[in-house]
From TrEMBL:
Highest taxon, organism lineage: Eukaryota
Biased composition (Low complexity): 28-41
Protein name: CREG-like beta-barrel domain-containing protein
GO cellular component, one term: cytoplasm
Region Disordered, residue ranges: 1-45
Species: Aegilops tauschii subsp. strangulata
Location of the CREG-like beta-barrel domain: 70-214
SUPFAM superfamilies according to UniProt: FMN-binding split barrel (SSF50475)
Amino acid sequence: NKLPFVPSKVDPSQNGALGPVATDKSRTTSSTNSTPDSSGSRAGLFRTPISGGVQSATFAHGLPPPALAVRNLMEQARFAHLCTVMSGMHHRRAGYPFGSLVDFANDSMGHPIFSLSPLAIHTRNLLSDPRCTLVVQVPGWSGLSNARVTIFGDVYPLSAEQQEWAHKQYVAKHQQWASQQWGNFYYYRMQNISDIYFIGGFGTVAWVDVKQYETIQPDKIAVDGGEQSLKELNAIFSKPLREFMSAEGEVDDAALISVDSKGIDIRVRQGAQFNIQRLAFDVPYKVETLEEAKRALHKIIKTSSK
């Protein structure tokens, strides 16, 4: 029951036409981030969980615009929740949403590619009804203040000729682990993306234009800034960042969970409480490499210690 390959098409009437949701401006500032600041001081560097809609935070705190934020998130995340429509073969539950945890990779347009077993319920569901949503969370997820995106679309099996190409995308993202699935799994792609709903934290909500998402290029450092890069940055900066951030209250742990051209997201622990804070790079250029990120972080920490 293999479905034929369906080329990627986007219905312009469904590509996020609702536009960004208005944010509550009364909640977009706090005592730590009320004004833009490019001097490397603490003011303007952090976005606390309760503050900042996409529009104001993008200006004041060096956040990527929503379409780019989603592309970066899709590059950095390796796992997601796939929600399919339960097929008729499960007659008592037919029509109900079925959620499952899957791994994925992306093609050059940001369309998700999946490696699915023919025995899995979600695979059978997709063969019956290709409509689904994919919910992707920022790596290091710790609560509702963290970024996540819901992508609506239609998933179909790739043709036999495209299986090797899809496998290469998987190996590039998942390294050796992906090759261990090659004999038992078949590759699928979200051929059509109809809508993208992005939440960057409390007060940060936007329907992202699909065509803009498909054409924008993710930050180079977000693509290259995989687990190994984050491990290296944490080995160097975890302790200095913890001390740096303790100036406004004791911080027990600070760990980098993502990096893009404009800054880093840090998971902060204070006792049993976790939140995500944003630290913007204070440099006049896009940060594109691991070495540039190191220099930018050294600059912020050095400036704050004066």
